[in-house]
């Protein structure tokens, strides 16, 4: 696709443009982050004050949500051009790591029903270009908040997820990545490609991190603004998996051109 065609696709499938996430939900999460609710911080800590208005201003700049604080309900948006620009910046970062020769890379997602397809395509690309994909802490399990039985880290095609017996589950929790960090030792990854708490905890640990985030997940954008996350791609993170294919192709092509 040309950039224009990709832009039209993002808007048509609501990966960007008029996304499904409501304005009320976005603003509620911005307030929660400003109040330092751990569930919304994704394992990050912030040096700045980051008031509610600060977070809204950043999200308008980084994701393209409506900047007017008086717009409090109804539709909100993600700017598709910001999505494409960030995907291209992510591709350049990934290519830069690959040029280093046999890098250690870790992929993880908290959105197995949406973004997993993007991560799996990246895993194939990385393997083909000499990366060593990590499987740290596979099988590590814990009791976490908001669920009643142990969950564990499980990999599928070199992508880490959180599993609940026979199912992969949605999670914002940084604890699984923090468990990985505790086991890295000298074998720290050269790059983490992730989302939610997987990305936040990696960025907090000083690991080069790129990630994906919805308009109601401001933590990674604040992490990027403070230099802890290298690139954050704004997008709806849970549309039909097949809808991400053109965006994934654009990302892969950007990596290949930059190598």
Key terms:
9-stranded mixed β-sheet; alpha/beta; 259 residues; two-stranded antiparallel sheet; 10 helices
How would you portray this structure in words?
- The structure is a single chain.
- With 259 residues, the protein is α/β, with parallel strands linked by helices.
- The chain has one domain (1-259).
- Helix content is 42%, strand content 16%.
- The chain contains ten helices and eleven strands.
- It has helices at residues 3-13, 23-34, 38-41, 52-62, 80-98, 116-128, 175-184, 196-204, 219-225, 245-258, and strands spanning 17-18, 77-78, 104-108, 132-133, 141-142, 151-156, 159-164, 167-169, 191-195, 209-213, 231-234.
- The strands form two sheets. Strands 3, 4, 5, 6, 7, 8, 9, 10 and 11 form a nine-stranded mixed β-sheet that branches. Strands 1-2 form a two-stranded antiparallel ribbon.
- Helix 9 (219-225) links the parallel strand 10 and strand 11.
- The longest helix has 19 residues, at 80-98.
- It is globular, with a radius of gyration of 17 Å.
- The two termini are 20 Å apart.
- It comes from Streptosporangium carneum.
- This is Phosphatase.
- Pfam families: Phosphatase.
